[in-house]
Design brief:
globular; two-stranded antiparallel ribbon; eight-stranded mixed beta sheet; 7 helices; alpha+beta; 17% strand; single chain
């Protein structure tokens, strides 16, 4: 667990913060661009364990989320089990930027960028955050049904669109499934064009190449990249 303690320091929140924030903040929002409440979201402070369990576990379909382990991390980056699971999947906040307002918690589930990962993807994620080459026994799978707040499709760990070498490669994703390959070269024939609506490779040509599989709502945060939008031009 020592390696894990280094990996997620950027996105932890202390137990004392959970207790100190008694009421939801105006800064806490639904992730939906339209502002609608999300199904099943508890009306609780985003620092509460109940809200975090909902936010992190709902990154996967309910039939996987129901029995997944849900994790948080203490200020030293050590894992805290919010809910013990039994199916080998782990759900956690995966935004390396951390919270925009740590005192009040994640603004919404989208900001948290929660991921639900199988055992193989857990190994991949640790290698990714440690700048090590993933050593996998098979392909891994991970769900991110709340999407992410943006990635440079060609270069890892770019935190803002303004820092991207080529801003046209910036994609703020909606719901998607990811496949982390045992052999990254096995995805070399897939496109890296995220505007086509089909599965595409993120970080092509690197040890961290993986397949992004968009599902319904993928372009809700960046509609200008949708193939439907392109066809209307």
């Amino acid at each position: 667990m020592k390696k894990i303690s280094v990996l997620f320091t950027a996105c932890v929140v202390s137990a004392s913060m959970w207790i100190s924030c008694a009421q939801p903040s105006p800064q806490q929002e639904s992730e939906s661009p339209g502002g609608a409440a999300l199904a099943g979201e508890p009306d609780l402070p985003h620092t509460s364990e109940a809200w975090q369990i909902w936010a992190y576990s709902s990154a996967a379909p309910s039939f996987l989320a129901a029995d997944a382990t849900v994790l948080n991390f203490d200020p030293e980056g050590m894992p805290i089990i919010l809910r013990e699971g039994n199916n080998g999947w782990r759900c956690l906040a995966a935004n390396p930027r951390g919270m925009s307002d740590p005192e009040r918690g994640w603004k919404n589930a989208h900001e948290a960028m929660p991921a639900c990962v199988d055992g193989t993807s857990w190994v991949w994620l640790q290698a990714y955050m440690a700048n090590e080459k993933p050593q996998l026994e098979r392909d891994g799978f991970a769900w991110m049904l709340h999407g992410d707040v943006g990635e440079d499709n060609h270069k890892r760990m770019v935190m803002k669109k303004s820092d991207a070498k080529d801003p046209s490669q910036w994609i703020e994703s909606g719901p998607h499934l990811m496949i982390f390959p045992k052999d990254p070269d096995s995805f070399s024939k897939f496109t890296d064009d995220f505007t086509r609506g089909e599965p595409y490779v993120m970080f092509p040509g690197s040890d961290y190449a993986h397949l992004m599989i968009p599902v319904e709502g993928y372009y809700q945060y960046q509609p200008e990249s949708s193939p439907i939008h392109s066809n209307e031009q």
